[in-house]
Amino acid sequence: MESQTGRTVTVPSEREFRDWITRRLAEFLQRPAHTIEADVPFAEYGMDSVAALSLFGDIEEEYELFLEPTVAWDHPTVRALAHYLAQEAARELGTGEGAGA
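Given the sequence above, the corresponding structure tokens read:
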């Protein structure tokens, strides 16, 4: 499927989003990715609004998904955000897929 920029994109699975978010959060926290738990709230890792905006900028750049600033608070864990992103990616690309992991 082609994105708005003409780039061919595949809708990532929930697991792919979860792995990607985990890696980004680990980079931000300067700790190994295996220490990031999918069900621990971002706030418990010290993620603030500035960090959330940075993460969302990375998501927009990587996946061409626009996210409202409140999404991290509406979906406050790696698992919840990955689930949301998989659904949004499928919806925006019109595939009807994406919630599975």
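The radius of gyration is 13 Å. Try to locate this feature in the token string yourself.
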